[in-house]
Design brief:
Layout lengths: L1 H28 L8 H13 L1 H11 L4 E2 H4 L8 E2 L1 H19 L4 H4 L2 H18 L4 H25 L6 H26 L18 H20 L5 H20 L3 H19 L3 H17 L1 H9 L9 H6 L8 H19 L10 H4 L27 H32 L3 H20 L9 H29 L3
Antiparallel strand pairs: 1-2
Helix pairs in contact: 2-3, 2-5, 3-5, 3-9, 5-8, 7-8, 7-18, 8-20, 9-11, 10-11, 10-12, 10-19, 10-20, 12-19, 16-18, 18-19, 18-20, 19-20
C-alpha cells in the first residue's frame, strides 16, 4: 500500500518537473509563448478522457469566440479555428478509441433514419475522395466533416438523452455570441451604426464576414423566443432570455445579411405551418402550383427582376429590395457567377464531381467573361460556391446532392412526426424551436455555405441531435408503456 502510494507521488512529481522544464525550454529558448497554454490543454485532455460532455460544452462555448490560426500565428500553409477544431479532432480520436475498447455504440442511434442518411452521405463523400481531382484536399474535408458529426451529433445525442442538457447547450453558445455582438457593435459604432460596409469586417476575427455572422444569429433567435415566452421556464429565465433576445436581434439587424433576413421570414412560415397543422398534400399542391407558375411566366419574371436597380444599402427597405437585383448588384451577380460555375462543373463531372472541398480550387476555368463581376478574381481565389446545394453538386456529383437532401428531408420528417406525437410541452417546444432554427439555415444554404466551419456546424448538427434524441426518447417511452416490466 505504502509502496503504491510512493510510486503515485513520485510519478506526479516526475511529470510536474518534466512539464516545468519543457515549458521553460519552449518559452526561453524557443520563445514560444503559446507553451503557457499547455496546462489548459492538459486539463482539457483529462476532461476528454473522463467526461465527453464537458468537452462538448467547451466547444459550444468557445465556438463564437474561436479565431483562425493565421490571426495568431501567420505563415502556416494550413488554417484552423482555435481552440475548437483541435478539440473536435481530439474528441474524434478519443471517441474512436472508446468505441474500439468497448466494441459497441448505441445501435438505436446508429440505426435512426437521420443517422442512416448521414452515414450514406459520408460514404458517398468517402467514395468521391477516392476519385477526387485533389485527394489531399478531399480527405481533409472528409476528416473535418467526420469530427463535426461525431463531436456535434453522435456524442450530443447521448448527452441529450432523456431530454436533458439541451438548454445548457444553447445557452453556452448564446452567452459567448452575445460577447461577439457587443464587440462588433462597439466597432460598428466608430464607423456609424448605419454604415453597411462596416458590417463586412467589424465581426473579424471571430467571423469571416457578416453573412456567416447573420446566419448564426438567425439560427439562435428561435430558441431565445422560446426561452422568453415558454411558460414552462421560470420568470427569471424568461427575463434573462428576453434581454439576450434583444442583444441578438440588434446584432441580427446590424449584420446587414439579406440571406439571414430572408431565411427568418421563411422560418416563420414553417413555424406557422407546423402550428396550424397544415397537411402535406396541401403544401405539395401549393409548391407544384408555384413551380408551374414560375415556369409558365419565367420570361416576365426575369424581365421584372432585370428592371430592379436597387443596390445593397444601409437603408433597410432599399437593402431588402436589392435582394432581387440581378442587373447591377455586385453581390447578387457574383453569386450567380459562382452558381453558374458549379453547374458547368457538374455538367463536366456529373457522377463523382471534382472531389469534396475542391470547388474553390477548380472553378476558375468555368468563369465566363459575361458572368464576371467587379469582385471576381482572375485566379478565382475568392471563396466557395455560395450554396450548400450547388457546392456538393459540383464536388460530389448528383448523389452527393441527393444524399445531403435526404439528410434534410429525414430531419424535417422526424421533427414534424415527433412534434405531433409529443405530450411533454417542454420537449415539444424544443423540437419546434430546433426545426425552425434549422430551417433558417436550410434556406440560407441556397445563398451561402458555411457547414465546413465550426460556427454553423455547432448549432446545425447539435440541433439535429436534439431532434433525434427526443425522437429516440419518445420511442423508448412508448415502447416501455406498451411492454411494462
Amino acid at each position: 500500500m505504502i509502496r503504491n502510494q510512493f510510486i503515485r507521488v513520485s510519478f506526479f512529481y516526475i511529470i510536474s518537473i518534466a512539464f516545468i522544464l519543457l515549458n521553460l525550454w519552449l518559452v526561453v529558448k524557443k520563445e514560444m509563448l503559446l507553451a503557457n497554454a499547455l496546462p489548459v490543454l492538459l486539463i482539457i485532455l483529462l476532461l476528454a478522457v473522463f467526461s465527453f460532455d464537458k468537452i462538448v460544452y467547451l466547444i459550444a462555448f468557445f465556438t463564437p469566440l474561436s479565431v483562425p490560426l493565421h490571426e495568431i500565428v501567420p505563415g502556416f500553409s494550413f488554417d484552423m479555428f482555435l481552440p475548437t477544431e483541435p478539440l473536435l479532432f481530439g474528441l474524434l480520436v478519443l471517441f474512436i478509441l472508446k468505441v474500439l475498447h468497448e466494441r459497441s455504440f448505441d445501435r438505436r442511434i446508429l440505426l435512426h433514419p437521420v443517422s442512416l442518411a448521414l452515414g450514406l452521405n459520408l460514404f458517398w463523400i468517402l467514395l468521391t475522395c477516392l476519385t477526387s481531382t485533389m485527394p489531399v484536399v478531399s480527405f481533409k474535408f472528409l476528416l473535418s466533416r467526420t469530427w463535426f458529426i461525431v463531436g456535434l451529433y453522435l456524442i450530443p445525442i447521448k448527452i441529450f438523452s432523456e431530454g436533458k442538457n439541451m438548454e445548457r447547450y444553447v445557452w453556452l453558445y448564446v452567452v459567448a455570441l452575445a460577447v461577439v455582438v457587443f464587440y462588433s457593435t462597439s466597432r460598428h459604432l466608430s464607423y456609424g451604426l448605419w454604415d453597411k460596409q462596416a458590417a463586412h469586417f467589424v465581426v473579424s476575427p471571430f467571423y469571416n464576414d457578416h453573412t456567416s455572422y447573420g446566419a448564426v444569429l438567425a439560427i439562435y433567435l428561435p430558441f431565445l423566443v422560446l426561452f422568453s415566452l415558454g411558460k414552462n421556464y421560470s420568470k427569471k429565465t424568461r427575463i434573462i432570455s428576453f434581454v439576450f433576445l434583444g442583444i441578438l436581434l440588434l446584432g441580427f439587424v446590424l449584420s446587414y445579411s439579406r440571406a439571414a433576413w430572408l431565411s427568418m421570414v421563411v422560418a416563420l412560415g414553417v413555424w406557422g405551418i407546423v402550428k396550424l397543422k397544415i397537411r402535406f398534400r396541401s403544401l405539395f399542391i401549393t409548391f407544384v402550383s408555384l413551380v408551374t407558375l414560375f415556369v409558365l411566366f419565367q420570361d416576365q419574371i426575369f424581365m421584372r427582376l432585370e428592371r430592379n436597380t436597387e443596390q445593397s444599402s444601409a437603408d433597410f427597405m432599399t437593402h431588402i429590395n436589392s435582394m432581387s437585383n440581378i442587373t447591377s448588384d455586385a453581390s447578387n451577380l457574383e453569386r450567380i457567377n459562382r452558381w453558374s460555375c458549379a453547374i458547368r462543373m457538374f455538367a463536366d463531372k456529373p457522377v463523382f464531381g471534382f472531389g469534396p472541398g475542391t470547388y474553390m480550387f477548380q472553378y476558375a476555368p468555368y468563369q465566363l467573361n459575361k458572368d464576371r463581376t467587379i469582385i471576381s478574381t482572375n485566379s478565382a481565389d475568392g471563396g466557395n460556391a455560395h450554396s450548400e446545394y450547388l457546392g456538393p453538386l459540383a464536388e460530389t456529383g448528383v448523389m452527393g446532392l441527393l444524399t445531403f437532401l435526404l439528410v434534410i428531408a429525414t430531419v424535417v420528417y422526424t421533427a414534424v412526426k415527433t412534434y405531433s406525437r409529443l405530450s411533454d410541452v417542454r420537449l415539444k417546444q424544443i423540437v419546434l424551436a430546433a426545426l425552425v432554427a434549422l430551417v433558417t439555415y436550410y434556406i440560407h444554404g441556397f445563398l451561402n455555405n458555411f457547414l465546413d466551419t465550426d460556427k454553423i456546424s455547432v448549432p446545425f448538427w447539435g440541433f439535429t441531435a436534439m431532434i433525434v434524441s427526443i425522437d429516440l426518447f419518445l420511442s423508448r417511452k412508448n415502447q416501455t408503456q406498451k411492454n411494462p416490466a
